[in-house]
Amino acid sequence: MSSAYALLFIVATIVLVLGLARKIAQYAKTPAPLKIPTTPAPVTRFGVVLRMFREVVFFESLFKSTKWTWIFSWLFHFGLSLVLLRHLRYFIDPVWLPIQLVQPFGKYAAFAMVAGLVGLLIRRIFVDRVRYISSPSDYLWLLLLLFISVSGATMTFVIHTDVVAVKQFFTGFWTFSGGDLPMDPILLAHLTMVAVLMLLLPVSKLLHIPGIFFSPTRNQVDDPRERRHLVEWARKLEDS
Amino acid sequence: MAKAEFETPKLSEYIEVPDLVEGTMEHITCFVAKPEHQEALGFPGEKVENWKEVAIDKMGDLLSRYRSFQVFMDACVKCGSCTDKCHYFLGTQDPKNMPVGRQDLLRKVYRRYFTFAGKYFPKLVGAVDLSEEIIDDWYSYFHQCSQCRRCSVFCPYGIDTAEISMAAREILDSIGVGQKYCNEIIGKVHKIGNNLGLPGPAIVDTLEGLEEDVYEETEVAVKYPLDVKGADILLVTPSADFFAEPHVDGLIGYGKVFHEAGVSWTLSTKASEAGNFGMFIGSYENMRRISLRIREAALELGVKRIVFGECGHAWRIAYSFLNTLAGPFDFLDPDYPVPQHICEFTLNEIEQGALEFDKSENDEMSITFHDSCNVARASRMGDEPGGQFEIPRQVIKAVVNNYHDMEWDTIHERTFCCGGGGGLLTDDLMEVRVKGAKPRMSAFKNVMEEKGVTHLAAICAICKSQFTKVFPYYGMDMFQIVSVHQLVSNAIVMNRKTPPEAAPGYGEDDDE
User: What pTM was estimated for this model as a whole?
Assistant: First the structure.
């Protein structure tokens, strides 16, 4: 059973890394022939870095738009990032100091995640406009993330699992010397769903993660009068 | 096509988000381009037999050439942030007029043919096969988008429905189903030089008429020169400025400003159009062909600077794209940005103290300013971000005593489209135009009632034409829309007097 999980996570990691790399390469390779930043836009590269930072960390545009969606999604993503940082302790030894410092917050961040996800799910079901644009997969993603969060929080706060064994399994993983995974149903469910998420991420709307960094309306400098912007296929038109 | 009966929406005090009513705008369809309009632009004349294949191929081609299109197709998480931001949705309640609803018309086909999930689990992700009905939906709803970019302000990934609707229209053109309004006009520019198809002699006539009118009014011989070689400034302005109201009053104003500033300038027959509908149909090639006319005119006339008149989408293309499409402009005077907006020019002259105004000439009016979408969200003026909001307002405030802004969430980057942009300014889309104007009309009406505003000033030819048509539907007067440079024209004091022999028509009688 443990080796089945080891195999699952090896495959999931490969799919996630290669799948994301393929999409990132595609985005990077696809030219943006025209300057289309949504203005007012920064007029310097550094300004764009700040705009992107505000967008990625604080969801600036969403904040301008709808406060409820902003609160729920920011709670979820903020909680998720703390929880992910905290989870690093299962993969590294010794545990880095910053990760140790995150530990107490990372534990309770699970509640922020759940609260955010529940809010988003309720909104998706009850706001007619959001319901209209939702496909089954949109609900399934929320449910998957909810199950992952709740199962994880259950192991943290209610029914503890043998985290030492889990850590041995995952640290040994890289050296193929891993120990056995505890045959704990909540843990196995948690891990299975995480693997599913990793497998599906590169073929889903979770591509918003790399996508935001490549969005021309957000990552372009507003300097078209000063600098001539010309991509390869457009240059060819000039030669002909 | 029967003329649709429709009800003008009731105006509200705040932006009200309506309930969804499916299919309210399904019946909308604009005239399809005739074969000759299509072929002149390099598109098939009629719907091709293997349209499905061609459309999917075109989609693939655009995905590989436009990062925006590829990323925007993937990145949407259906958060709903944009759903209440489109003026067409707010005015029609049709969910396919929500930005994401509109995008999904294309996205569901993208997913079916270009993604793993859509190929193998279409039901799960809402992917569908391309069909006749979908083409009809595309044609209807992608001609209910004015490409105003308001949605892109509020999208956490910056997804811009304008980019999607441009791609959709290009796909439609590629299978031979183009829109008559845009494609016929683009053909006129390629052939004659401007959207209205005004030949050189007609422009000469108009400009001579203007010179006489202005002389009569001011006793100053303001010139409206055409094709003058060696002039310093080439003015490129929308052809509507040559005859439509209130556009022409703006053109009169530019001439007076140039006169008082003491610069030499000229219009051009070849570049007698600032507008460029190539953008509306998403065609880089057509947009480039039209832009090159401006480069050629500038070279032929040997000018040092290019200034654009009041036109919203034209300013987007001029400011954001012209350097790309028709640059480099290294043959022009490097001391000035290429191109400049007429408001930048005028404000600069005001700051230099070159212009004198009598603001009381505008005292019978109280003004508010409509930020045109393409200026507000797709361009800039001046050196600072947001100059596109401040500079026109500074020009207005320099020439009027009474000015009030509309509500904060309906101006600047949050401005509402006039309802007629993006290639929708055609009578066969009147229902869309009237309903889509609702949010802007509401904000205008509120500032009229609360602050006593009487007139709406704009710097966009399409906005001006649209408001002229749409105001009466909302119980307002068509003359309540004014050009910014019309206000300048009213207030400017003409200090450079003219000796009698320089007056237009002087000595003509003797020659007969």
Answer: 0.95
